[in-house]
Amino acid sequence: MIVDRRPLTFWEKLYLPAIVGGLKVTLKHAYSTLIQRKVVTMEYPEQKWTLPENYRGAPYLVKDQEGSTKCVSCQLCEFVCPPKAIRITPPGASGQKADRANAEKMPKEFEINMLRCIYCGFCQEVCPEEAIFLLKDYSITSTSREELVYNKEKLLALGGEHGGIQKWKHKLEEAKAQENFPVKV
Amino acid sequence: MSTTATTETKPAAPAIEKIKVKVDGREIEVPKLMPDWTGKLTPTTMIQACELAKTDVPHYCYHPKLPIAGNCRMCLVEFGTPALGPDRKPVLNPDGTAKIAKSPRPAIACATPISPGMEIYNNTPTVKQMREGVLEFLLINHPLDCPICDQAGECKLQEYSVDYGQSASRFAEAKVHKPKAVDLGPRIMLDDERCILCTRCVRFTRDVAGDDKLGIVNRGSYNTIAAYPGTQFDNNYTLNTVDICPVGALTSKDFRFQMRVWFLKETKSLCNSCGTGCNVLVSSREEKMYRYTPRENDAVNGPWMCDAGRLNYKWVGRADRLKDVLMRGAGQGGLVKTTWLTAINDISDKLKRAPAGSVAIVASARQTNEELYLLAKLKANLGALSDSVEHTGEADRLLVSADKNPNTNGARLNGICYTEIGSNLPQIAQGIQSGKIKTLIVFGEDVTTQGIGADLLAKLDTLIVSDILPNATTQLAHYVLPGAAHVEKRGSFTNTKGRVQKFMKAVEAPGDARAEWEFLHDLVHNVTGKNGYVTIEGLFNQMAAEVPGFAGLSWAGLGDTGVTVTI
Ligand code: SF4
Ligand code: SF4
Ligand code: SF4
Ligand code: SF4
Ligand code: FES
Known about the structure:
The complex is a heterodimer.
Chain A: H1 10-13, H2 16-35, E1 59-61, H3 76-80, E2 86-89, E3 109-113, H4 122-126, E4 132-134, E5 149-150, H5 152-159, H6 167-176
Antiparallel strand pairs in A: 1-4, 2-3, 3-5
Chain B: E1 18-23, E2 26-31, E3 33-35, E4 41-43, H1 46-52, E5 76-82, E6 100-102, E7 107-108, E8 119-121, H2 125-140, H3 156-164, E9 182-183, E10 188-190, H4 200-208, E11 214-217, E12 224-227, H5 239-244, E13 250-252, E14 265-270, E15 279-285, E16 288-294, H6 307-311, E17 325-328, E18 335-338, H7 340-353, E19 359-362, H8 369-382, E20 385-387, H9 408-413, H10 425-434, E21 439-443, H11 454-458, E22 462-467, H12 472-476, E23 479-482, E24 491-494, E25 499-503, H13 516-528, H14 536-546, E26 563-564
Parallel strand pairs in B: 1-8, 19-20, 19-21, 21-22, 22-23
Antiparallel strand pairs in B: 1-2, 3-4, 5-6, 5-7, 5-8, 9-10, 10-13, 11-12, 14-15, 15-16, 17-18, 17-23, 24-25, 25-26
Helix pairs in contact in B: 2-3, 7-13, 8-13
């Protein structure tokens, strides 16, 4: 589509009125800071702004209220992540069992490359276990690229605890209540 | 010698009468009789007719290669047949078409035969409702373990739930819980909660594998799949039940929690563990193989394969793979790393200077037709003796062949070995002993276990060895040329019945390792001075033109399922 440029009016062609308009803004700010002593900047990083409730910062892994890993290594987040920032190593058959009963598995390794992450929040949205959340961290710095690949341990430490329904625990309790089929854990 | 290439394995059957039916309003002609799971001709069923009409009928218990059970009810369809008047004559509509009497009851498409003029309705609101109902019942006690279930991504329950499922369950009671992670046998893990009781696994092991070990115990909602008490489900075909289980109840211990299926790239390939040459799909992600699954080919393996072959892939990723081109330094030097160019040029020079009859070739019947063809060219040029090595094991009544080489017939057709494989080996040993044979070319075999021991090998001027894994022969070699496993290259095998089948490349070879046909092509070019084809297609077609056994074949013509030649 071609949009024709509107020809300038005589007033616009004069050029000076626009300069004056710009100067007016500058002067207004000069007045409010110099004369009225109003602060328009912030002393970052000592001071930080309050983030809105729905702010999407870096994605971290969370633990449940009993301190167990919630992620079950379903790899949906790895699949959905647009810039392929997530890399999960599944446990395999003989690998480490999940650290809570009945969940059967958890990732052997879970890495997020914070340099790749675009904070889209897809991983949080797709996760069937409510195990990954975009928290409020936005200032992610380091002296090397390698350090910015966060591993499972680091992600879990940063993510902290996030309660919610414990479905695997519920299933187990429900099963245990049924005498006919004692479910081995 | 003349051979005719055919795609048929049996002579053409007598023509079968065709009948007309309508599927969702579209009229098609279908044969009146079609092969059932054993291949016997039986009246065509609705599900077969719908398949011919390219209409999907959702189903769980039906499997084209298993006896029909008709227990899941997922395949319910509505149908009608031409109405008959009291005079047993068809009633006609005013426009002259036959009046269809719609059956008041639905029928299961998997077990109901078609009749002339029948109309099948696969898409009506009633059909949709019935399927929703069936699915709701199946999900009543289903644990919805998808995040921890290996089947997720290739699960029929998931797929049909997307098509016919409800977003919320109306079942307010507690679900019946059943045993989870049951160790059914050495290779199989069972999760009883996920089982939808389609009995595919029971029918497979009873009727196909002939090892009647699985059954359903308990009643009603407590129905549970179990192995016969006190026994292990451990025949050589157990992993096929994992493939046919429509849900994640039966899972492979080998593949358990290894990788989610949606990441896997599937490559059409062959199993090379025996002479049967079962068609497989190699699943890999980022150059790592995760599993083999059988690929249907009715002329070879049907939809099945044996467990031993299926699990025989791990050696490909072994850490001690030969990755470097090695060359023995001057004098008594050890093996040092070199480049392909140096090694191939060096070998070519030596072979060109070798007097006729001073070279012998021991090839492997695990190599591809194309590679054996190139070796045969070398053999002809050098007037060399050649043979291959026999590997045998136990055969069974289903698929496993006693011949553990995947390409013995390819070696025979290319003239590398003779009807009795290995008959030339003593002669080669003798030649070395007498000093007549000065150069030995070995591909993919450890000749020290075949009567050509280290003492004999020490007498050679030049020992050229290409292999994939190190062995006693590669250690004594003057030149070690690292080769590629069959999943790392393209090529074709000729199975015990003479079926020529091709396979594709799934993963990259490690380090400097290269497909044998690539460097053999260079070698043949240097030694004979004649150029050949540098693509596998060209090479195969050249072989088909020159080797009478493969006459009439072409790479493209092999298709996915191969072509049978006379052997
Ligand atoms: S927020 Fe988006 S980019 Fe970042 S890890 Fe999650 S899915 Fe990937
Ligand atoms: S974080 Fe959630 S989506 Fe990602 S692997 Fe773990 S359970 Fe699955
Ligand atoms: S069997 Fe299918 S539906 Fe059931 S848990 Fe496994 S993937 Fe999900
Ligand atoms: S284990 Fe699988 S194949 Fe066997 S009855 Fe259950 S759902 Fe069917
Ligand atoms: S597929 Fe027909 S009843 Fe199961």
